[in-house]
Design brief:
Largest interface: A-B, 27 and 33 residues
Radius of gyration of chain A: 16 Å
Oligomer: heterodimer
Structural class of chain B: mainly alpha
Distance between the termini of chain B: 41 Å
Helix content of chain A: 25-40%
Strand content of chain B: under 5%
Helix content of chain B: 55-70%
Largest sheet of chain B: none
Number of helices of chain B: 23
CATH architecture of one domain in chain B: Orthogonal Bundle
Number of strands of chain A: 8
Shape of chain B: globular
CATH class of one domain in chain B: Mainly Alpha
Distance between the termini of chain A: 6 Å
């Protein structure tokens, strides 16, 4: 959901989905707090974090829902797909199983999410190159066939994490701009201010 | 108004009125739906026709049934707490502190036997010696801690140590048999179990340890052997191959749990967890392994382990492999059987679509709406779904929300309640949310609310905070359990 806020120009709701143990929570903590914990606890249900970003002259708030990856939680977590402006589908490049699940995740977001919601495919843990099970070419081909952007990240090394979210937000803004001409094409994006600013609720819902 | 006056005025209100049972017919509410007796499900409608007469043990919650419109203030909590303490003290003084237990059966401990009883079990056979020892060695700091915990009751003319020792005596007498009355143990345990007796008491409350003392040793021997046989049958390669996903998931999850506690970083401890969780999952295919169940094994493991930890060692840091192999095996088998028993009561939390959790979250919403509509409305206005924060409370039984020592105290009460983990837990969650009502209402938006709810400030909580929480949960339970009319008012208001 993209909303217009009094204090923020936009509030964007994102979801992180993918199999358990692929590193969703660490991608989120790296992006929102610049933290990484190799022994982070498993996510139960959903977790939530936000980050404020500046795009040109526009101030934006991203609200990110990090969902639990285990199969049993799907009934609970897919409620969070509804109203999401974009999704990151994450897999672990060292786990073929997690890549094989991408089709199912894609189906879930298309079934429960809003139509045409922008999605970026993320291959995480590229610091563990020696354990790679999913070749880049395979992932890229899959992304191409499904009209997704593909990016590889390492939350551990803080590599490409910003870019992954940036890819997604750019896509969201661009598709939003096509409808609302007052917001200009907005690449390159500049990201600043990790602090959590308070903002007033009164906002108008665009979609 | 002095404490004494408050106490008196409070007592005068204690009329033990039955919960409102009027107008129970014809409601189409959630609470009215007929449910089947499924483990973990809330009990189906039962009209409460008599007032609750239960009086629980030490630090029991107030037994009054407050007007359901009244939100109990902090002062009320304290008054109720004083009152419960006074009752306990009176009871405590009536008990001769040196009562003889020579009628108890004495068994020679055999620590070298692979299936020997843990020290916690030995206690029941030598209660008097242990009790006297306990009094003698109670450390100054512990005594001081207790005094400060009860500082509000200064001037009432009793020593908290007496209360502690009286409680220990009561427990010891009851556990020593020859037939332990499980109802007495339930009453005593509600207000917290002395650490020295927790292992044995939990085993009794789980139905693992027989109440008849003559059957205990043979039963434990048999059950521990049975667990060994499960390992022989299920913990081997061809079973792993057929259940590859389960095994892999458990192996990934176990190193991620309790990483802040040194004990759980030990490979040998992780292997215990992996074995217990794998065997349980294989034997319970309806739910299988669900993330969160691994957390629930922790309190049992810690409590049973502590029975074997020498007094000069810390349970959190002890080298598990330094214990004799027979003790390691016993701790593992006992943990398996008790977690097995306890999960049976809440299995529908973990089956397909997790109906037990869905039901409890819906009930939590109704209770909060009725008891604190301002808070409820604030959450709704800010588009906060109860599921977003309370799913984890239900799935992990609040284990992610409290320090481990608080959870162990909480489980003393849960184990003493019939269906405590399925039923009473709901009211604990409601009380927990209501505790932070003011802070939540002050949060301006979804973001601030969710971030606060995800990490509620409980780092400094201790037993006394848990007891206040449990007292409030008890009050809510007696106000709403089987009293569906109380919720009906809220629903009709809501619909207009």
């Amino acid at each position: 959901m993209v909303t217009i806020d009094e204090e923020f120009d936009m509030v964007i709701k994102l979801v992180l989905i993918g199999d358990t143990g692929v590193g969703k929570s660490n991608l989120l903590s790296r992006y929102t707090r610049d933290e990484f914990n190799s022994e982070s606890k498993t996510t139960i249900g959903v977790d939530f974090a936000t980050r404020t970003i500046q795009i040109g002259k526009k101030k934006m708030k991203t609200q990110i829902w990090d969902t639990a990856g285990q199969e049993r939680y799907r009934a609970m977590t897919n409620a969070y797909y509804r109203g999401a402006a974009g999704a990151l589908i994450v897999f672990d490049i060292c786990s073929l199983n997690s890549f094989d699940s991408i089709g199912r995740w894609l189906q879930e977001i298309r079934e429960y999410g809003d139509p045409g919601v922008p999605i970026v495919l993320v291959g995480n843990k590229f610091d563990l190159k020696h354990l790679r099970q999913v070749p880049i070419s395979t992932a890229e081909l899959f992304a191409h066939e499904n009209s997704l952007k593909y990016i590889e990240t390492s939350a551990l090394l803080n590599s490409n994490v910003e870019s992954a979210f940036q890819f997604l937000i750019t896509e969201i803004i661009n598709s939003f701009s096509q409808v609302h001409k007052d917001i200009q094409e907005c690449t390159p994006l500049t990201f600043e201010d990790r602090s959590d600013l308070s903002f007033r609720r009164k906002c108008c819902v665009i979609n | 108004m002095s404490v004494g006056t408050k106490l008196f005025s409070f007592l005068s209100k204690d009329t033990n009125e039955p919960p409102d049972t009027r107008d129970l017919e014809g409601s189409g509410s959630f609470w009215r739906q007929k449910g089947y007796k499924v483990p973990g499900h809330a009990q189906p409608d039962v009209v409460c026709t008599s007032p609750p007469h239960k009086v629980y043990g030490a630090q029991h919650p107030p037994k009054y049934v407050a007007d359901s419109d009244t939100k109990v203030s902090q002062t009320d909590h304290l008054v109720a707490y004083h009152r419960s303490m006074v009752t306990d003290i009176e009871e405590g003084f009536n008990i001769p502190l040196t009562r003889s237990h020579s009628d108890g059966v004495t068994r020679p401990p055999d620590a070298t036997s692979p299936l020997s009883d843990p020290p916690g079990l030995k206690f029941e056979f030598d209660i008097k010696a242990h009790f006297l020892n306990k009094v003698k060695h109670m450390s100054q700091s512990k005594a001081e801690e207790q005094r400060s915990a009860f500082r509000g009751s200064e001037g009432l003319g009793y020593d908290p140590n007496d209360r502690e020792t009286a409680k220990l005596e009561k427990f010891g007498k009851s556990l020593a048999g020859p037939n332990t009355d499980i109802n007495v143990i339930r009453k005593l345990s509600w207000g917290g179990i002395p650490a020295q007796l927790r292992g044995t008491t939990w085993q009794l409350l789980c139905g693992y340890l027989p109440t008849n003392i003559d059957r205990r040793e043979s039963t434990l021997t048999r059950k521990r052997l049975e667990y060994r046989q499960y390992l022989d049958s299920y913990y081997k390669k061809n079973v792993f191959d057929n259940n590859h996903d389960i095994m892999k998931q458990i192996q990934v999850d176990v190193p991620r749990m309790n990483s802040e506690i040194k004990l759980f970083r030990q490979q040998v401890v992780r292997e215990v967890f992996i074995r217990v969780l794998f065997i349980w999952s294989i034997r319970h295919p309806a739910s299988g392994y669900v993330q969160g169940i691994n957390d629930l094994l922790t309190p049992f493991f810690i409590v049973f382990l502590s029975s074997y930890v020498p007094a000069d060692k810390n349970t959190d840091t002890i080298e598990f492999s330094s214990l004799p192999q027979c003790h390691q095996d016993t701790i593992e088998a006992d943990s398996y059987w008790c977690v097995n028993h306890f999960l049976e009561g809440i299995q529908d939390n973990y089956t397909f679509e997790q109906p037990g959790i869905q039901l409890k979250v819906a009930k939590l919403r109704e209770i909060v709406q009725r008891v604190d509509n301002n808070l409820h409305q604030h959450l709704i206005d800010n588009e906060i779904e109860y599921m977003a924060f309370s799913f984890r409370w239900m799935n992990n039984l609040l284990m992610r929300e409290f320090p481990l020592h608080c959870i162990i105290r909480l489980w003393d009460t849960y184990l003493s309640e019939r269906e405590g983990f399925a039923e009473f837990h709901l009211y604990t969650c409601a009380a927990f949310l209501l505790t932070f009502s003011k802070q939540l209402i002050a949060k301006p938006d979804l973001q601030a609310l969710i971030l606060f709810l995800q990490r509620l400030p409980t780092d400094q909580w201790g037993d006394r905070d848990m007891e206040l929480l449990l007292a409030e949960a008890y009050r809510l339970k007696y106000t709403f359990e089987n009293a569906h009319g109380h919720l009906k008012v809220a629903q009709s208001k809501d619909s207009t």
